[in-house]
Amino acid sequence: MQSNQELEGFRIELRDWLEANCPAEMRGGEASEASICWGGKNFEFESDAQRDWMERAASKGYTVPTWPVEYGGAGLTRPQEKIFKEEMNRIGARSPLDSFGIWMLGPALLHFGSHEQKLHYLPPIARGEIRWCQGYSEPGAGSDLASVQTRGEDKGDHWLVNGQKIWTSYADKADWIFALIRTDREAPKHKGISFLLINMEEAGVETRPIKLISGASVFCETFFTDVKVPKHQIVGTENRGWDVAKYLLTHEREMISGGGQGLSGGRALGAVLNESLGEGQEMETTLRADAMRCEVDALAIGLTLERYKDQAEAGTGAGDASAMLKYMGTELNKQRHELLMAAGGSDALEWDGPLGNRPADWLRTKANSIEGGTSEVMLSIVSRRVLGLGA
Amino acid sequence: MANLVMTEDETMLADAARGFLDKSAPVKAFRDLRDAGKTHDAKMWKEMADMGWAGVLVPESAGGSDMGHAAAGVLAHEMGKTLVVSPFLSTAVIAATALRNVSDARAEKALAAIATGDVTYALAVDETPKFNPEAASMVATREGNGFRLSGKKTFVVDGALADRLLVLAKTDDGLTLFDIPADRAGINRTAQNMIDARDSARIDFDNVEATGEDVLGQVDSAMSVLKPALEAGQAALAAEMAGLSAGAFGMTVAYLKERKQFGTVIGNFQALQHRAAHLWCEIEVTASAILNAGRMLDEDPDNATMAVSLAKARATSTAQLAVQEGVQMHGGIGMTDAYDIGFYMKRARVGAEWLGDYGYHAAQVAKHRGF
Q1: Structural domain for A192, as ranges
Q2: Chain A contact present for B140, CB below 8 A
Q3: ipTM of the complex
Q4: What's the pLDDT tens digit per position in A236-273?
Q5: Alpha carbon B63 to chain centroid, angstroms
Q6: Quick one: B235 and B307 in the same domain?
Q7: Are B1 and A306 a contacting pair at CB < 8 A?
Q8: 3-state class (DSSP) for residue B5
């Protein structure tokens, strides 16, 4: 436990560092999925400032502030992490790097990976060098994820992988994929899955973007034809990949929930709405009432995310929090974007119009309550595991 | 940012409180009180005082247990679960916080009397059907060294039972808070027949005398004393309503597991499962806001306004959902007086209005968030 004096010292040091290193272009503004820095070999930075910000943050471990220093993080304690967030929000700093490696694979590797795997895979994620995508869903395995059929045949020193994944977000831009592969076809469905790491440059891996209602193609189909995956590229134990998958899902769900803030970086919805109304215009009564309700809920959900982290730190955490956060956060985020559209009026009705990505972002949020487990699946998890209904 | 984990002390306090209340104040105790036409159990309040509850916010120097606002929230939460009626909020939370913000010998004495459970208080602020303390129009006219108070207050919770009243009135250049005995000449109290069967009164003040001694804090600046008192009360009330939500929810889920229709327990129907699960999610999210408000009042009271309003807003909407879902999922039996769920619904409605409703507090949050 650090003293308050030590923590204040950290805050002052951090504040100075942010002041000196976070470029002005990386502060404030309306956040959008399109402005995320994803990193990876194929990533095109939107500006030098974006690249500088990522590299400077990575050099301090601030792209993954809570990861251990040896794996590319800053090793921040929980109280330091809170200060980090407060100081980032204070100047409206954009996240220097976001990726599925950071949000999902990283936590799973930290929990299940060997020391060698951590040393090998984590630092390139922290530095934004390798971009990962997620191979979970299949055409026949959506909400019923454990029924995945993509198979890995045991060939001694490697598995031979064949099959198809779908909704693999940004697979066309990713360098590697973590995937659920059926390695035992005789076992019950949860007990025959392995969690494999696959290089997208391997022969036999093919991706095809899917055009979405938002006009973008963030989701892909990914095909595996006789892809060789060396045996050491497994996380956890053979046929016990479902444990890794579930653990990772809890992180995915928390990530998608965004702590109720979506991508707003802690900004108040009402303030954003006011901006888009233009000078002298006031929010009409129902919009304002809806915005207030969203703000109340967003703050409370944000506190809940923090409360669960505090509980986990204290070792008193209740399980199944991620299903709740995912459900509440994504339903709220959808409402927020409905209000953003309403505040934008006809300006929000044009692709790349006066409000830029707003309509695309609005449509994108509709997937929030589907991806990573639908709202209905989340409610079923809560009612079964927490409330003991219909067991 | 506050640490949002219950401390070991708080968990022990909650367990101890639950143990006492399950024995001495289950919902049945409230029902018996109501059936007897009573709104107060003086003996139980004395027992609570003996356990340090009345002095939860009274400094140890004045004989209090001084456990703080988060702990007061823990107690209020447990009381809410079984709809305990007591002067806890009015006296131990609101009045004690007001008095604590005044440092003089008289306040110290008053705090000591609160801690022992010997004196109860009620806060007389509302004049209109909606909470709006800044707009108080009751007048305190200067007369000699003192004042004369004339006007009407309504929805004075615990106002019929209280020994003393904290009264907000307009003075020459602002608002002033008075601390006067409830039986002073010119005060006429009419008990209100409240839907939730709790104590509340309409109070007429007819040229009531008040001396300079009776002023709490400074003349014309009531808010320096009243604001922290209101915020303490709002946070504790939010905690009580969260407890109420948990109580109603517990009853409801138990009923889902027991009631059979179509040859199975109704908790097997997904339509009800998902509604119950949604309610649980709302309760969990509200719990964070409640704990945060208590922590902010303890750690940074000058900047707690938004946290408190967030807690009261969330507690209000969650409690209203909990009781509406509770009655609906109980079906016909939920409509009967013989069944307890209706008590929760009525208490939630009163709690929703007291010390500011959802809209009042959501607007406070918005103001602090810059819109």
Answers
A1: 131-239
A2: no
A3: 0.95
A4: 999 999 999 999 998 888 888 875 554 445 677 888 88
A5: 23
A6: yes
A7: yes
A8: coil
